[in-house]
Amino acid sequence: MTFPFTQEFEAAELENENLDEIEETPKEWGLDFKSGQLTGRVVEGVEAVKVWAWLALRTQRYRYMIYSWDYGSEYEDLIGTTHTNEYLDTELKRMTEECLSTNKYIIGIENFAFEKQEECLKIRFKLLTVFGEEEMELYV
User: Fold this and answer.
1) Fold of 26-139
2) Which residues of the chain have pLDDT under 70?
3) Contact 26, 106 (CB under 8 A)
């Protein structure tokens, strides 16, 4: 003989287990990537992951106590140094991959390239996510 409340409890447990398996689609406030201003609309999926990546790459790691030490990039460590283009290519790619690896929706990057422009670097790559691919470009 089973009690009625036991069946309800078991059904609720099964329902909660199924909910844990379903991953939510990420949502972020949309950004205008040229100006860095919010667009006022909510974006989902690959566009939301792109917003997260853009913000993470532009945030200096270890500077702000509000973020964990896993969040942000270390590009500023290269400021004022005189390294070869080969070294910069290797380090920038490593730093980018390390920064983005903390996001569970990001699989990796491809076609990484950079170019020096006056006092900054222009970084371009293809962001590979579980939702699709997206071209990224940012200035450091």
Assistant:
1) Nuclear Transport Factor 2; Chain: A, (3.10.450)
2) 1-23, 80
3) no
Nearest 5 degrees, angle CA 81-CA 124-CA 83?
15
What does pTM read for this prediction?
0.76
d(CA 139, CA 64): 20
Q: How far is CA 55 from the centre of its chain?
A: 8
pLDDT in tens, 75-85: 887 776 777 77
Give whole-number Cα distances, 14 to 18, 22, 23, 79, 93, in Å: 6, 13, 16, 54, 44
Q: Which strands, in side-by-side order, build the sheet including 120-129?
A: 106-117, 120-129, 132-139
Alpha-carbon distance of 114 to 97, in angstroms, equals 14
